[in-house]
Design brief:
Elements (H helix, E strand, L loop, with lengths): L1 H12 L4 E3 L9 E4 L2 E4 L17 E12 L2 E13 L5 E2 L5 H12 L8
Parallel strand pairs: 1-3
Antiparallel strand pairs: 2-3, 4-5, 5-6
Length: about 120
């Protein structure tokens, strides 16, 4: 919702380099602003709701950080679709389920290319 979006952006603006959301039970967008990462919702990992496709999916996010003379910065971000369940598993790249999850995440993202 708009309130949580404002909150996450305010936390980022206050200095957090990474902010992760989780409550909606479905993966949402990712945004990078001023080199700071906001993941709006990781979706489900364990609590799979079998009646809905989107609630059976989650995102694992890999972040590569670089530390140099200017400080620490985010170098790359990878969004990896996951099938939720008691034994979550990565969805095979290029599979229909992975592609559907990645396309939805990309649609809600800004400031970053999600492939």
């Amino acid at each position: 919702d708009r309130g949580s979006l404002r909150f996450m952006r305010a936390v980022s603006a206050a200095g957090a380099h990474m902010v992760f959301g989780h409550h909606p039970h479905v993966p949402y967008g990712v945004e990078v602003t001023d080199g700071k990462l906001i993941v709006h919702s990781l979706g489900n990992f364990v609590f799979r709701q079998p009646s809905r496709f989107r609630t059976q999916r989650g995102l694992a996010v890999g972040v590569e950080l670089v530390k140099d003379s200017t400080g620490v910065r985010i170098d790359s971000v990878a969004c990896l679709p996951v099938s939720a369940g008691f034994q979550p598993r990565f969805l095979p790249p290029g599979s229909a389920d992975a592609d559907t999850t990645v396309r939805r995440t990309a649609r809600f993202s800004r400031g970053i290319d999600i492939d």
